[in-house]
Amino acid sequence: MQNTIVVPKFRIGSRRFDVFPLWIALLIAGLVFGAFGGYEVFRYGLQVTGLNNHVTWGLWIIVDLSSIALGGSAFVFGVMVYLLRLKRFEKVGRLAVLLGFLGYSTAGLVLLFDLGQPLRFWHPVVFWQHHSLLWEITMCVVLYLNVLIAELIPIIFEHPVFAEHPLMERFPILRKTSDVLLQFAHWLHKLGPLWAILGLTLSILHQASLGATYGMLTGRGIPFDPTAPVLFIISAMGGGTALLFLLSIFVFRVMRPGLVDDKTLYDVAKLAGGILLLWVYIRMWDWAVVNYYSVQQTITTQTELLDKIAPFSTSFWIGQILLGTVAGFVLLYAGRIKNWKVLGTTAVLPVILIVILRWDYNFSGLVASFSWDPFTPTIWLHSYTPTWQEWAVATGVISYWLLGFSLAARFLPFQSTMHSEHE
Amino acid sequence: MTEKKLPQEEQGQDISRRDFLGLAGAVAGAVTLASVAGVHKSQASEHAPEEGGHRWGMLIDINLCIGCKYCTYACQAVNNLDDDMIYNVVTLETTTSGDTYYLSRNCMHCEDAPCVHVCPVGATYHRPDGIVTMDYDLCIGCRYCQVACPYDARVFNWREHDGVSCRVPAFGTPEVDPRPRGVMEKCTFCQHRIDAGLERGLTPGVDLSATPACVVACPTGARVFGDLNDPESPISKSLTENEVIIRLREELGTEPKVFYVPPQNI
User: Fold this and answer.
1) Helix, strand, or coil here: B260?
2) pTM of whole model > 0.90?
3) Is A373–B93 a contact, with Cβ atoms under 8 angstroms apart?
4) Measuring CA to CA, which of A232, A351, B9, B64 is 20 to 30 A from B139?
């Protein structure tokens, strides 16, 4: 088993240098930019955004929904490793847990800015309104974030610094603390199957509910879609697994050669490809139901109007169906293609698909909304342009995600020395 | 377009268990009410929350609306709203025959209100008298109610409000507490007027100080307010007198408690 972490270096002329410090500096600059935007939002409220009473959910909601979806591999691989006992995916599964944690914490962070009353973020946990999808999502996300932390702690404590450090010899209290923490981490690790079951349950619940958040909007036309929950779950599984595959190439193949064999990585790609093709199949049926079997003039008009101001239909056919199909087939045949550059590039497509799907669901009904005129009902077009504060906050939270991943990729071992009963 | 004769005559064909229980309760309540107080059965609501309780509703006669926006301004004065915060929207619309008319629209106070269903903290809720209202101390400002409302009736408080509305004092004076920045707001049928009026023995819809400000301000009497459970209330009488009554986006099943008399030349 390999323990060495190979640091990729860039070459300029005959010199090779490590760009990691520069990359981290860039991400910190992103965080600082985000802090400026965040300060403006907290100081002056949401009036500094481009949101309005018609388009009331904007860029941040897309970041929120997408980061949650891109963390979807965590529950998929929790099930594979701990319930289906496919142990060869354990190391990849650890990366999935990290992506899950980063995705969900990013979502929580960006939502904090999106609330009109950010200091009341805890209200849904205390003041229950169990009829609300958003309440259910909040509870699931809060609980699942805790599950992810429980899964992440043992991974972090695999780092050698927690087992052996010169300061421990000098300060025995550090040694004792480390022992207690390692025991706690080991105990959490042993509960892996429990976390997997909880993760699966909570994820299915809230990924579906995120789709239903839009799917139940009877008065909004296009987003009113009973298939939305299924589309959201499956796209999160497929897109999240595709992102996991992409980053696994970097973390395992490039930085930790030999830790995970290529066949396992191909299998991750195949899984992503298969799920994506299933998603395309269901999405096509969904399209057929809306546009062929039960044509509604209002939705047709809504689509036409959206097409006038944005490439709405193009984003469906190219951004969802074409990307999903191409990525699905290429990843499904990863074992035959065996070209890491092609496979890695292709794995980016489902990530784009995830964002486009959520973008369309969010904006279609808000930008093209129905009037209330009972005699000659029309559809009104509204506009929304994110302000620099919104871009700043989005840059800040994405920088946080990238920073978390970069530090983990550089320093975490991703291999287990803990042996539990299920192994 | 959706048309109906009278609200009590148009109850749906599909009855779920919840509807059935609600209907059973309402019938029991209505029978009791009719026998005790001599109230006509048809006026009792199937959604009546409590026996003998009030159920407030509004009727807007489109033929009488002249688009003066006094309702908008009075609402802004009483609720102390900034000029760009409007609970009561008046728009110019067109009939199928091409005639224009003014559509005055506030919160519909739906029986099956989407905003109540979606609120994650229960900040938007139904009062026992059917008014859809807000607990501003609970609201987290997620704006899901705004996304879910099919009538665009919800208004977000984007900025700190200092000072008084520019509609004060011409159209009234502030009567409610200021709301903090970052919460969702809405028309409450001037619940503070209703509650204070009832305490003083007044009749909302009849006595002006107990009636929503928009109704009082309307110079043409296009707005009628009252207790839908009381057959003698102005709204119950108006609903009976008018042959055709409509409600907005009725196909969504939200059961609004704001009714309209449609234009004569539809």
Assistant:
1) strand
2) no
3) yes
4) A232
Task: Count structural domains, chain A.
Answer: 1
This complex has an ipTM of 0.92
Q: How far is A108 from chain B (nearest CA, A)?
A: 13
List the domain boundaries for chain B.
56-261
DSSP strand pairing (A368-370 vs B100-105): unpaired
With an 8 Å Cβ cutoff, are B121 and A135 in contact?
yes
Kindly give the interhelix angle for A388-411 and A20-44, rounded to the nearest 10 degrees.
Answer: 140
**Shortest CA gap B187–chain A (Å):** 15
CATH number of the domain encompassing residue A166: 1.20.1630.10
CA angle A244/A248/A249 to nearest 5° reads: 125
- CB-CB under 8 Å, B117 with A131: yes
For tokens 């809504």, what's the residue? A302
Domain that holds residue A277: 18-411
How far apart CA A2 and CA A7 sit, in angstroms, is: 14
Q: Which of B147, B149, B184, B261 to mutate to test the interface with A (most CBs of A within 10 A)?
A: B147
Residue A13 belongs to some domain of the structure: no
Cα–Cα dist A364/A384, whole Å: 12
Q: Report whether A103 contacts A64 (CB < 8 A).
A: no
| pLDDT tens digits, one per residue of A164-182 | 888 888 888 888 888 889 8
Q: Do B119 and A120 touch (CB under 8 A)?
A: no
